[in-house]
Amino acid sequence: MRVLALNIAEAISQGLGLERDHIKKAFGQGWQIMAANFYPQCPQPNLTLGVSQHWDKGALTLLMQNDVDGLQVKHKGRWVAVRPTPGMFTVTLGNYMEELSNGKYKSIQHRTVVNKERMRITVSVGHRPEHDAIMAPAHQLVEKDGGPRFKSLRFGDNIKLQKTIVSKGKHALEALAFHQDTAVMPSQSAVERTVE
Predict the structure, then answer these.
(1) Tell me: the pLDDT tens digits for 50-104?
(2) What pTM was computed for the model?
(3) 50 and 42 Cβ atoms separated by less than 8 Å
(4) Domain of life of the organism in this record (predicted)?
């Protein structure tokens, strides 16, 4: 799974016009986090969720699942079902990838719903950088874009920030983003207060 994730990261690096191993180097040793989920049949699926809406903190997640629908992504304000394809992985991108790409790739908001008639089984493997890795837009992209879209932050602090912000229903990168109208970053002390 790690080899596959790094191959995808290489393709993304090249797609951004970066060196092939840019993301791999930025990851450092990195982390893999595996979650296995069992969603039993639910007689009233409209009354519950399998997993509530969220954005992943890391770079990318590889999802294996049986042939039962359940994953939904937010697209243009609507929840859209992602149909499983037998023998294939579903890949979602997280906050780390959106920041590194200076907003060219988007962290995807997603959730899981349950099924009235069938059980659903999934195994997801998330890939993250080291906790001490600096989460920052690639400087080559910053130069092309005329500046960074996000403030840099240690990845471990980003995890704390996401727990605080997402509980309020917001995307964690909102706290690190430049203001669109004034192009002013939140101050370091403001970010630190949010993280604490």
Answers:
(1) 888 888 989 999 999 999 999 999 999 999 999 988 889 999 999 999 999 999 9
(2) 0.82
(3) no
(4) Eukaryota
